[in-house]
Amino acid sequence: xxxxxxxxxxxxxxxxxxxxxxxxxxxxxxxxxxxxxxxxxxxxxxxxxxxxxxxxxxxxxxxxxxxxxxxxxxxxxxxxxxxxxxxxxxxxxxxxxxxxxxxxxxxxxxxxxxxxxxxxxxxxxxxxxxxxxxxxxxxxx
Length: 141
Hints:
Layout: H1 2-25, H2 28-36, E1 38-53, E2 59-70, E3 76-81, E4 93-99, E5 102-107, H3 113-116, H4 118-140
Antiparallel strand pairs: 1-2, 1-4, 2-3, 4-5
Helix pairs in contact: 1-4
């Protein structure tokens, strides 16, 4: 029983750490702040393309749009959208999300349930798996 309890504590700590790391890697705090802020229309001022390789080494082209918008305070902000590949041409209008206190962290990525709750989903499912595994260990040992 003690071994199962120790396993559960260690596994839960590892899962929570993994969820936090995943959240930072996916830029979760910046995106949640932008989604909780304001929306506006941004104009695509430039499209930069680059040649990259997939996991198998096959080359493909990725484009990154530079978007420019004006905040409600009148400040003009330009940023390159790297999180999402847009099918925007120069001059097109795109909806962007930004936080009032950090408009340079804007994104054109629309909020989804999975993206907003990735950290909680990973932590919750991992803790549930750790609990189930600890229960099996407690029954076997």
